[in-house]
Specification:
It is built from 2 helices and 4 strands; from the N terminus they run βαββαβ. It is of the alpha+beta class and 63 residues long. The chain has one domain: Alpha-Beta Plaits. The N and C termini lie close together (5 Å). The protein binds iron/sulfur cluster.
């Protein structure tokens, strides 16, 4: 599946990093980095990250 973060909405809160550390992390400069193509086995944590994002910035798409 494909993950997309709307950079205009994202405020680098980091809830997604806590919910799905296999997909989201912070770079050395504090900006959010993420895997844009992830294995189906990570769907639950991806959906959890999308749910907890306070800006609703995360979109999950099937490929
Ligand atoms: S939880 Fe949402 S707003 Fe916060 S860093 Fe993740 S994508 Fe950005």
């Amino acid at each position: 599946m494909k993950i997309c973060v709307d950079r205009d909405k994202c405020q680098d809160h980091g809830q997604c990093v806590i919910a799905a550390p296999d997909i989201f992390r912070f770079g050395e400069d504090g900006t959010l980095l993420y895997e844009s193509h992830v294995d189906e086995s990570l769907r639950d944590s991806a959906e959890e990250a999308a749910d907890v994002c306070p800006e609703q910035a995360i979109t999950i798409m099937d490929e």
